[in-house]
Each structure stands twice: as structure tokens, then as C-alpha cells.
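Ops channel
N.P.: pipeline sanity check, posting one input/output pair.
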């Protein structure tokens, strides 16, 4: 099945391609934010920028209008909902860019790991935990204020009230005991930490 048909099934319809200048601008802003937020990981801003500059980025129409951006691993592309302003793209792309840099592909170019998510197993595991960890990193970078939300009839305090609130609240409790370094370091930046 071609990529346009797959995207259409997921509710994404390509509108236009972001030019190289805009991609470089987003890559630069996101690399700078990641490195300044997580200095303890000794990340190389230039390496992250170089990797993010390779991402294909597009404007698209989404059937679910609440989605601002989506990373699609099959073609290593980020799709932005075109209803958002250009100046918000670097903020929208943080979560999706982390997904891109956490990929580990084999020599054939097939995806093996996505942070904690193991793809090539009979029973893939770790997707929800990985998604929560990426969102927690995103909330730290974006300086999102924690808040109380009602989720499945339960009031809970979460560092990410808008996206994955329950998963982030649970992972935040684990981080309280073990610290954030092992969680964030183990799920991301495989290609950037040398």
C-alpha cells in the first residue's frame, strides 16, 4: 500500500511540504531546547540538529482536529496540522522530534526499537511507557504546568494534563523513586550520545 493511502487511513491528508529553511529552523530550536533542558545527558546539540534536519516535514489536514502534529515512523516524517500558526511548529514538533531521534533501525533500514518499544518481537512491549516518557520529556522542555485532571472518574495530579495524563502521572511516581536520569537516558538519544 502506498504511503498516501496509509496516511489517509490514519486521517492524515498531505497538503504541502515545509521548505528546508523552515525545517532547519524547527530542528535548531528543538535541538537547543532539548540540550538546554537535559544538560546532564551531555547531548551534542549539533548532532541532534543534524539528525532533525533530515526529517521530512509536511502540512496536512487531520480528520481529528485536536492533533497538532504526528510523527510517522514508516516514512520518517512529521505532519503538522495546517490549522496551526507557523510560529507554533517548533513547540508542536518537540514530542515528534524526540520520537525521531529515539528510533533505532537495523542495517536494512527497518525499525527495531522506538525507545522502550521493541518492534521486532512477537509480542511488542513498552509502547505506553515509551509514550509517557516522551511526553514527560516534552512537558519539561515546554515547561508545562502540572494540574489536576479527572480521568476515568479519578482525580489525579499529572505533569501532562492535556496528553497521556494517566500514563504520565504513573511514570512520574516511578521517577520519584528512581530519578529521571535512567528513564530519559534509556529511552532516547541512542543515536546522539557518543
Amino acid at each position: 500500500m502506498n504511503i498516501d493511502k496509509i496516511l489517509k487511513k490514519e486521517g492524515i491528508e498531505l497538503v504541502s511540504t515545509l521548505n528546508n529553511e523552515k525545517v532547519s529552523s524547527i530542528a535548531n530550536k528543538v535541538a537547543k531546547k532539548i540540550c538546554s533542558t537535559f544538560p546532564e545527558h551531555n547531548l551534542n546539540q549539533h548532532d541532534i540538529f543534524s539528525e532533525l534536519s533530515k526529517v521530512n516535514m509536511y502540512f496536512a489536514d487531520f480528520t481529528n482536529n485536536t492533533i497538532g502534529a504526528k510523527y510517522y515512523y514508516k516514512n520518517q516524517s512529521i505532519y503538522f496540522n495546517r490549522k496551526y500558526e507557523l510560529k507554533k511548529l517548533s513547540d508542536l514538533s518537540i514530542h515528534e522530534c524526540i520520537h525521531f531521534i529515539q528510533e533505532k533501525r537495523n542495517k536494512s533500514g527497518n525499525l527495531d526499537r522506538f525507545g522502550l518499544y521493541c518492534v521486532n518481537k512477537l509480542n511488542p512491549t513498552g509502547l505506553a511507557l515509551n509514550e509517557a516518557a516522551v511526553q514527560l520529556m516534552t512537558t519539561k522542555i515546554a515547561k508545562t504546568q502540572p494540574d489536576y485532571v479527572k480521568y476515568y472518574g479519578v482525580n489525579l495530579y499529572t505533569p501532562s494534563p492535556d496528553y497521556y495524563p494517566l500514563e504520565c502521572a504513573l511514570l512520574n511516581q516511578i521517577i520519584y523513586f528512581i530519578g529521571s536520569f535512567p528513564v530519559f537516558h534509556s529511552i532516547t538519544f541512542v543515536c546522539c550520545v557518543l
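N.P.: looks fine end to end. Residues 190-194 have pLDDT under 50 and may be disordered.
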